[in-house]
User: What shape does this take?
Amino acid sequence: MKPSETIRAEYPPNRKTSAKWRVWKQYLVGFAFISPWLVGFLGFVIGPMIASLYYSFTDFDMLTSPNWVGLDNYITMFTNDPRFRTSITVTLLFVFVSTPIKLAFALLIAMLFNNKRKGSGFYTTLFYIPSIIGGSVAVAVMWRQLFGGQGAINDILLFFGVEGKSWIASPDHALMVLILLVIWQFGSPMIIFLAGLRQIPEDLYEAASVDGAGKFRKFLSITIPLLTPVIFFNLIMQMIGAFLVFTQAFVTTQGGPLDRTLFYALYLYERAFTNYEMGYASAMAWTLLIVIAIVTGLLFYSSKKWVFYESEKG
Amino acid sequence: MKTKRRFKTFLYHFTVLLFGFFMLYPVLWMISSSVKPPAEIFQQAASLLPSAFHWDNYVEGWKGFGSVGFDQIFRNSLFVSSMNIIGALISSSFVAFGFARLKFPLKNVLFACLIGTLMLPMQITLIPQYILFNYFGWVNTFLPLIVPAFVGGTPFFIFLMVQFIRGIPRELDEAAVIDGCSTFGIFWRIIMPLCKPVLVTVTIFAFLWSWDDFFGGLIYLNDPSLYTVGLGLASFLDSTSASSWGPLLAMATLSLVPQFIVFLFFQKYLIQGIATTGIK
Assistant: This one.
C-alpha cells in the first residue's frame, strides 16, 4: 500500500490541499513528535557508540589526542592484564550464581502469594520493599555495616555459637555477601512471576486434580511450562542487570579484598575515571557488550527448545 | 476439618511473616541503629531496640561533612529528580504518541532501535558522553544528569507508554479528526487524559531511579556543594571514623524516606507497571 492510500484510509480527505503535501505534512508531524528521542538517540547513543568503538582502537587519555593503536588494547586485555581476567571471572561467577538463586526465590515467593488469602497483596508489597531501595547508597552502607566485623550478623551468629569475622573484608566471603545483597532484592521478578501465575487458567489445575496429579506434579507439568516465557524474560533482564552491578560493590567493598569483588563495571570505571585510560576502557566496554550479546544470544537460541508460547500450540 | 484449615492458615501467615521479618530486618536494623547511642551500634549490633532514643545522630548527621550540610544535599537530589520527572514525562509522552499513532518513513526501523537501546549497557556510551559533556563545559553541573531525560534518555518509559497508547481504541482519534481536531489536539485532548495511569507510573520510576542514581553523580559532580544523596552518603562514609556511624545511618535512613513515601502512596501503579512491562 502506498503511503497516501494508508492515510486516506485513516482520515477523510481534505480537498483543499494536495495529496502530496498532506503526506509530507503527516511525515513532518510524525518526526516532530519523535524528535526528542531522535536527537537523544543520535547524539547520546549512536554518536557515542561510534566514538567509543573508535577510541577502543586508540590510546586516548583525555589529555593528548588519540593515537591509533589497532588491536593493542584488546590484545593487552586478554594476554597481559591479570586484573581484567579477575574482573571477568568475578563477574561471571556473580552473574551465574546470583541470577538463578534470585529467580528461584522470586518464583517460590510468588507462588506463596498467588492465592486468594487475605493479606497476600500486603505481603507482596512488603517483600518488594528491598527492591525499591535496592540500588541506593543507603542500602550499601547498611549492608557494609551488617556484614562488618562488629556487625549485626556476627551478633546473631554468636547467639548460635558461631564465631564471626568481618565478612566483607574476607577474600573468601566478600563476593558471597554481595550475592546475598542482590538475591535479597528479588521483588521485581517476583511481581512479574506473580502476574504470570495469575494468567494460568484455573481449570488446567482442576483437570489435573481429576487425573490424580499431586501438587508437585502440577507444578512440573502445568506451572513451569506455562511460565517459561516469563522465566525467560526474567532471566534475560536479571542477568543483564547482574553484569552491570556497580554501586553496591563500589560502596561496600570497593573491589576488594584482593580484587575478589572487582566487578567488570568497577574495573572499567577505575580504568576510565581514575587512570583516564579512555581508550582501554572503551575496549573494555565493547568487550562487555559482546559478552552480553553472546550470552543473551545463546539464551535466545536455547529458548526455542524450552520456552513454550501458547500461540504455538495450535 | 475446620481446625485443620485454620491451622493451615495460621501456619501460612506465620511462615510468611517470619520470612518477611528476615527480609525487612536489615531495613529495620538501620532505622533502629540510627537512633541508638553510638557505642550500641557495635555492642548490641543485632538488637532492634535502642536502649534510649539518641536523636543527636540526626542533628549531627544533618550538619553533613565539611561545609556541606545535608539540607543542601537533599535539595540537590530533589532538584535533579524533579527535572528528571519533568523530562521523562514530556519526552516519553510525545515520542510514544509518535510511535504509537503517527506514520512516517523508517518508523519500524527506528522503533526497533528504541527497543535495542533497552538492553544496551550504559558503559558503551559512557566515555564519549563524558568527553562530550566535558567539551560542553557541563562537568560539575547538573546538566549531564538532567538533559538526557529530556531527550528520551530512558527508553523504558517510551516503550511503556507506546504499549499503553496502543491499547487506546483508534476510533477515539478518528472521531476527533472528523470533529476537526488537529494531530496535536488528539495527542493533548484525547490521548494524554487517558494516559494518566501510565504517566503516574513513569513519574514514580523516574523519581525512584534518579533518586537512587549514584554513578551519574560520581562521574559528573566534583564539587561537594552539588552532591546528591548517594554521593553525600558515600563521602560521609569515607570521611567519618567508626564513631560517626550513628549520624551516617541517620542520614541513610532519611535518604530512604522520600522513596518510602512514594512507594506507599503509589504502590498500586508501581506494581502494575512492573507486572505489565517488567521494568527494573
Q: What stands out?
A: Chain B has a mean pLDDT of 89. Chain B has one domain: 83-278. The two ends of chain B are 44 Å apart (CA to CA).
